[in-house]
Amino acid sequence: MLFRFSLLCSLGLLVCTCGRAPENEAVAPSVRPNILFIMADDHAQRAISAYSDELTQTPNLDRIANEGMLFRNSFVTNSICAPSRAAILTGKYSHLNGKIDNLSAFRPDQWTFPEALQAAGYRTSLIGKHHLKTLPRGFDEFRGLVGQGDYYNPTFVHNGDTLAPETGYTTTLITDYALEELQRSASGGQPFMMLYWHKAPHRNWMPDTSDLAGLLDKRYPEPANLRDEYQGRAAAAHADMRIANMFVSQDLKVLEQYEPNDPGTGGATFWPGGTRIMAEYFYREIERLTPAQRAAWEPFLARVGQEWQDVKGTSDELGWRYQRYLQDYLGSVKSVDDNVGRVLDYLDAAGLAENTIVIYTSDQGFYLGEHGWYDKRFMYEESHRTPLMIRYPAAVKAGTENDDLVLNIDLGSTLLDYAGLTPPAEVQGVSLRPLLAGSTPADWREDIYYRYYQEMASFHRVARHEGVRDERYKLIQFTEPGFEGYELFDLLEDPSEMNNRIDDPELEAVKTRLLQRLADLKEELNVPD
Ligand code: CA
Predict the structure, then answer these.
(1) In degrees rounded to 5, what are phi and psi of residue 277?
(2) Ligand 1 centroid to 397 CA: how many Å?
(3) From ligand 1's centre to the CA of 486, what distance in Å?
(4) How many angstroms separate the Cα of 129 from the Cα of each of 82, 142, 443?
(5) Which residues contact 298 (CB under 8 A, 6 or more apart)?
(6) Does pTM surpass 0.85?
(7) CA-based max dimension of the chain
(8) Over 90: is that where the pLDDT of 379 sits?
């Protein structure tokens, strides 16, 4: 297995470019494809109706799956924002690209797939959220948010120059700039590759003013484990990411006049005074809205404040918090869906749809109340998974699905493959091109490695861990001092990962096998410790 996997890693691109023509690739594109790589931030699979229509409708995002392929088993290698972006750009796991957590620096001198495409003659651009602190290399046009960015009236950096704050809603502004750049690219005579990367629906989930009406009347089904008590899962019990402890100000949007002493920890238990600092940050965000934006928000905020005062301390509080969270999260998704629709319409109108690869993904998944949580980080399914839909009419059959284990580090290799390029040997991702053509190689990976590194003494207090997942089982090893130990889940019988069966004799053979696979994968992937 080890040999076969290594061989696949090193020869994967040859396998799919030199093998027989895949079934669905009847019409080979005569020119190199354009690439539109759309990424949202913290967008859970369950918040896209192509995956599940239980919570919301996303007709524009669904178009990408309906007209292309939806990946059911798409995962990240390290479920946190900046490290995931680094993994995507470099095609390598965190231990090799160096960006192991949100606190460490990204090494800007290393190979990335956009720079390789630029060197090969593509016009390249990055519009939206970058979040790697250094100015990115390899882009002809870069218009990025400063840091995490704001939902309203954001400040952009344009090719190194920090601009004055702009007026408007960030998801829409990013899209306006993406459309401008697409028009420039389309008239330039080169193939183009755009990273169109949204801030939304990252915390603190502020929907557009046009989406506030009716939002507070929406109701969503609670997940069965909203009131999880974390039996047999010590690290989960210790984490500070429960909806029950969200910031009442910043997250739930209760102004100071309705709640002067926010009782939430919001993931900031390590940070003395953090709750107050974040509350003041939220009040300032409201202060800096334009008069028109403020007028739209005021009745919304007044009703939220009143509802909080009515529900605070009652048995209905957690249920109310959950609804408030999902209202804002899904309200923020609504604008992403609308704006992606604008871009897809443009590709149609400009005659670019046929020869443009459109990817939709997120930097990771997110908890929408499962285990009582918001946020990500853990190797549990909701944040280990990430959405992935790819449309490329010239080579991908519409309305298809794939169940193979795929990773965010595979995307760069996939795009290079379609552009006729080969990534350097150190790249660990494998091209998805054969999967997109409808034929999975016999030796495709059967399990995946995961690792979360961030210090315990930082946001959300999540113990360090690593693990391995195959089609049915998941083994997690917690390495944080005080939390050392293992968890083992049968995802077929227990998809919500409530029952840690590490000591169950019935799964002894599975445990032994996965412990060995974890060791083997670490060796194959050059994990140093
Ligand atoms: Ca993220």
Answers:
(1) -65, -40
(2) 30
(3) 26
(4) 10, 10, 36
(5) none
(6) yes
(7) 68
(8) yes
- Beta-strand relationship, 465-470 and 473-478: antiparallel
**pLDDT for res 133:** 76
Tell how far the Cα of 78 is from the centroid of ligand 1, in angstroms: 11
Q: Which CATH superfamily is domain 6-204+328-449 in?
A: Alkaline Phosphatase, subunit A (3.40.720.10)
In 312-391, which residue ranges form alpha helices assigned H by DSSP? Answer: 317-349, 381-384
Which tokens in the block code for residue 366? 């997110």
Q: How far is the CA of 364 from the centre of ligand 1 (A)?
A: 6
Q: Give the span between the Cα atoms of 389 and 60, in whole angstroms.
A: 12
How far does the centroid of ligand 1 lie from the alpha carbon of residue 154, in Å? 18
Whether 1 has a pLDDT exceeding 50, the answer reads no
What's the gap in Å between 193 CA and the centre of ligand 1? 22
Centre of ligand 1 to C-alpha 182, Å, is 25
Does the pLDDT of residue 319 top 70, yes or no? yes
Residues in the chain: 529
For residue 41, the CA-to-ligand 1 centroid distance in Å is 4
DSSP 276: H
Percentage of residues in the chain with pLDDT exceeding 70? Answer: 94
Mean pLDDT of all residues belonging to the chain: 93
CA of residue 199 to ligand 1 center, whole Å? 8
Hunting for tokens 């944080």 — which residue is that?
480
Q: Is the pLDDT at 9 greater than 60, yes or no? A: no
Ligand 1 centroid to residue 79 C-alpha, Å: 8
> What's the pLDDT band for 23 if we cut at 50, 70, 90?
very low
In the sheet that 123-128 helps form, which strands lie side by side, from edge to edge? 161-162, 156-158, 141-145, 123-128, 192-197, 34-40, 356-362, 388-391, 69-71, 400-402
DSSP-assigned beta bridge partners for residue 391: 358
- Domain ranges in the chain with CATH number 3.40.720.10: 6-204+328-449
Q: How far apart are CA 31 and CA 502, in angstroms?
A: 52
SS3 state at 220: coil
pLDDT digits (tens, 9 = 90+) for 394-423: 999 999 999 999 999 999 999 999 999 999
- Determine the distance separating the centroid of ligand 1 and the alpha carbon of 185, expressed in angstroms: 28
Averaged pLDDT for residues 4-26: 36
197 CA from centroid of ligand 1 (Å)? 11
Q: Could you tell me the two tokens for 448?
A: 């995946």
Ranges of CATH 3.30.1120 domains, the chain: 464-524
Q: What is the pLDDT of residues 444-481, one digit of tens each?
A: 999 999 999 998 889 999 999 999 999 999 999 999 99
Class assignment of domain 464-524?
Answer: alpha beta
143 CA to middle of ligand 1, Å? 19
